[in-house]
Amino acid sequence: MTLDEVYARIDKYLSNNSHQPILVDVADCTLLSKLIVHYNVGNTFLHANTFAKFDGFPLMEQLKNEIQIKQGIVFLTEISTYLKLQGEEELKSQLRSLLDIQLEGKLVIITNTCQKYLRRFDRRLFDTNRLIFVGDSDDIVSVKIFFIPKRIPLNYDQIEIPYAKSLEQLPAILEKHQNKDVLVFTELTKKDIPNALLDIRVVTSSYDALVNFYPELKSLNKTYGTELQWTELLRILQSGEYQWSDIVNAAQALNFNFLNGTLNNIASNDFKEWIDFLIKKLYGAKDNVYLSAVIAKAENVDDFKILLYDFLLEIDRYETLFKTYYIERKALLSQYDEDDNALIAYCKKVTVKESMAIYYLTDNSKLEKETIIKCIESFIKEHSRDELDIALHQVYPALHEYLSHYNYGQFSEYFDLYKYSKVTNVMFDRFVELAEMEVEERRFLDMPHRAKLIDKMDKKNSHLYFVDALGVEFLAYIQEQCYKRGLDFSAKIGCCNLPSITSQNKEFIADFKSYTIIKKLDELKHDGQFDYNYEKVKQPIHLAEELTIIDKIIAKVDSDLQHGNLEKAILIADHGASRMAVITESENQWEMSEKGQHSGRCCPTSDIDIKPDCATEENGFYCLLNYDRFKGSRKADVEVHGGASLEEVLVPIIEITKRTQNIECKLDSKSKVVTSSFKKIAKIRVYISKTLSDVSILVDGKYYYTAQLLNGQQYIYEIELPDVKKAGIHTFNVIVGDSIIAKDLSFEMKKEGANERKFF
User: Fold this and answer.
1) Which of 177, 451, 472, 622 is the 20 to 30 A CA-CA neighbour of 653?
2) How would residue 174 be classed by pLDDT, with cut points 50, 70 and 90?
3) Does residue 693 lie in a domain region?
4) What is the largest CA-CA distance in the chain?
């Protein structure tokens, strides 16, 4: 029926003598609006919400009584929405009741999209034109009506869909916006309207509000966050200051620190971490397979933070993707703030990997470094030293650099094994043999005294860094750090005064105009900070902190040199220290009249005492040459000095300067593949962009000093390698004096006349 036809029907009713109500159902809100406007002159319009309580339904008896006493023509509107909320039976019952009212005037009941329920009314109502349909409500698109409690922080001004501030406003809003979803702020739930004919979506949480009103978030699971987190996000988005796209764009532009600029003033760090997690859940992790795997498995941000650490443990060391996972995980964790609880838990869990545990750790944190050191002891039970070198090169490069070879001259084998014994916490037979030989031969007495070496130094424009307890064991590590920073390094090894204690070894300070005293290493060895106590932890976990201290010293030296504060830095130690004297836990039989000092490594002499065979007498003290302590003296906590072991008495005198010129160094193209045989010594040629003297190379832990300029060449050095026999790839460093000028160059060795074999 057209609208004009409807007007005619209604007008006919209004002009006749009938006082029976009629009902007009309109299927379209535009037609409905026109109908109301058409009759809203001279007639009484009664709105059903007038009789409704706040956030409730109309009081029907009160409404009917009002209609009955009204004179003239009354149009009743907005009733059908209330009734549809209460179900089909209530709708039919109440509308039939309204149609049966005895009137003194006229009543036109206007409903909206109720045709399919009214078609089963009494046929006589149609025949007498008391039921009139406008349009076809079967074609009307079903809309969603969202019920939202007021505790959920929605901002009216930020709501893009029509809304009603309470239930009584719903009919007017719905009939005005027929094809649009509508939001209603109400405390009603589905339990209150179990038979509703409308598509009611009860939003009971901030999460529901987000996924319903922000389409870009609809794929997020509720378990991804707490209600407090969802509420905070909703509050931020509803503030009008930020759009979700703003947050996402900031995240992608600034990586993990995106919220610091975007939401810094209104969001906590925990909330920022959660947002970061949500974005990853929604958009994934491009080109990062480890992060993608973690995101896929994590159900919430707490899961994510734990899995970021722990997921690697689910991957077998020998799986193809393990290396990729390891590298990506390490990079990721370095970008996040360290999670102490997750890290502590991870370092406990990793022990289930037993001898393989080392491969699951990184040098990102102090705790992991210490855990690596703890794991080494079990690692070497099943793996060789070469395998340990390879593993440490990957997981803890600094420790690998500490263990790297250095030219200690006649003491090279001793200190190579000393460092290895210290790191592994094992006194190897060969090292014990060498240590016992030193007790007998006392070769340190043949070394130049530190004072003589200092006297010969050029101290002009130099600054002394007096590093208490800096043993020669750290020379390879310092050499490496200088190379990384582009500094020239030169070192000599001298002998300190006995006993090897500070009070007997600081006379050299007077030789320098300016100096800095650094005691952190010594304090670390004495005080047993943190868990650095042999009685608590047997492994040398303090070594991680020792290397960190040295890093800071070299960084300070570099800074002073680069800023022009000095031309030369000179690092000198008063004495070294011994870890072996701690782990042997050996108390000798000699009980002296005087109490042993420095954990029993030295003891004042007395006329009534007999000098032990394992001691040397200097400056009024007996100093132990072996790893004993005098009877009755206390055990050392970390490391000890005062005795006469090589690591206690040999000290470094190091000169560091800025490298004034970059030196290019590369393998000659003809040397990329070399051959050797029983009669033929392998040779390589190296190009160095500056004519230098004292050039050597380090190959497979052995130094070769045969580098000579090739005849007729200014920059090509030829080096014979008589001990390099093994076929395969060999890496080497180029060293000038004591300074490394190039690292990790490589050549391939082939056996002349032999068939090449490959073993898998």
Assistant:
1) 622
2) confident
3) yes
4) 143
Whether 584 and 679 share a structural domain: no
Indicate whether 726 belongs to any domain.
Answer: yes
CB atoms within 10 A of CB 355: 14
pLDDT of 754 over the 60 cut: no
Residues 637/535, Cβ–Cβ less than 8 Å: yes
Residue of 614, 617, 613, 589 whose CA lies nearest to 603: 617
Nearest to 297 by CA among 310, 288, 287: 310
Using CB atoms within 10 Å of the CB of residue 221, give its burial: 0 to 12 exposed, 13 to 18 middle, 19+ buried.
Answer: exposed
- The SS3 of residue 183 is strand
338 token code pair: 């360290």
**Mean pLDDT of the region 690-707:** 89
Residue-level pLDDT at 151: 85
- Whether 687 and 705 map to the same domain: the answer is yes
- State the pairing for strand pair 163-164/199-202: unpaired
Residues 573 and 706 in one domain: no
Q: How far apart are CA 44 and CA 46, in angstroms?
A: 6
The predicted model scores a pTM of 0.79
Contact predicate 756/681, CB 8 Å? no
636 plus 557 within the same structural domain: yes
CATH of the domain at 697: 2.60.40.10
Q: Is residue 674 part of a domain?
A: yes
Torsion, CA 702, CA 708, CA 713, CA 716, rounded to 10: 10
pLDDT reported for residue 758: 44
